[in-house]
Amino acid sequence: MRWGLLPSWVEDPKTFPLLINARGESVLDKPAFRNAMRRRRCLIPTDGFYEWQTGAASGPKQPYFVRAKRSEGAPPLAFAGLWETWTGPNGEELDTAAIVTTDANRILSAIHPRMPAFIAPADFDCWLDCDAVPAEEAAALIKPADDAQLEVYPISPAVNRVAKDSEALIAPLSAQTAAERVAPQQPPKPSKIKKSDDQPTLF
Question: What does 3-25 look like in DSSP terms, one character per residue?
Fold first, then answer.
């Protein structure tokens, strides 16, 4: 699946923006998502995800890693997802998917107002069974994750560089270093201002 849902009714995909997220509050109504919500729900397994917290206006953004709390027998994380197959004029097919989002829970709300909607293992069958479970019933599963389910901690800003790819990227950053990164800073002199290397938010 390609990330960024492309509705089946789109005539020219080059003129339609890919929809990487579907707001849970509107998946039953929005034309781009309502058919997928009825017939093409999916799960997107994950070890965790990144989110960025903006500091002061002149300060950098602090990246965080969000994952399930590590404990023996902890269930896997699975994003609620929707998928579609777009068919072109020559019979070509493109499979795409989007993550369903919802309001952030208490521990994530200080970083970002939105978060992925997680489906609990006990509800996997309910979410996936589009034949037996109506979209309205499945939509009740779209809600913020339990605070006790997740852990969130600051990580190195190196995660924002494509050339970096190692396990060290999700190693916790010390609390002091993280605080220094988001603390207010004196604006630099105009002659020393560099172009921003901002990371766009996932939500």
Answer: ESB--TT-S-GGGS--B-EEEGG
pLDDT digit string (tens) for 23-68? Answer: 999 999 999 999 999 999 999 999 899 999 866 555 678 999 999 9
Q: Does CATH number 2.30.42.10 belong to domain 2-53+73-147?
A: no
Between CA 174 and CA 40 the distance in angstroms is: 42
Q: Using CA atoms, how far apart are residues 174 and 155, in angstroms rounded to an integer?
A: 8
96-128 confidence digits (pLDDT tens): 999 999 999 999 999 999 999 999 999 999 999
Whole-angstrom Cα distance, residue 144 to residue 10? 31
Q: In the structure encoding, which two tokens stand for residue 96, read together?
A: 């795409």
Distance (Å, rounded) from C-alpha 195 to C-alpha 85? 39
Q: Of 169, 153, 24, 148, which Cα lies nearest the Cα of 75?
A: 148
Strand pairing category for 41-46 and 150-154:
unpaired
Residue-wise pLDDT for 165-193, tens only, equals: 888 889 998 754 655 555 544 444 443 43
Helix (H) or strand (E) holding 150: strand 150-154
pTM confidence score: 0.81
Residues 6 or more apart from 188 whose CB is under 8 A from it?
58
**What angle (nearest 5°) sits at the alpha carbon of residue 28, between those of residues 26 and 29?**
70
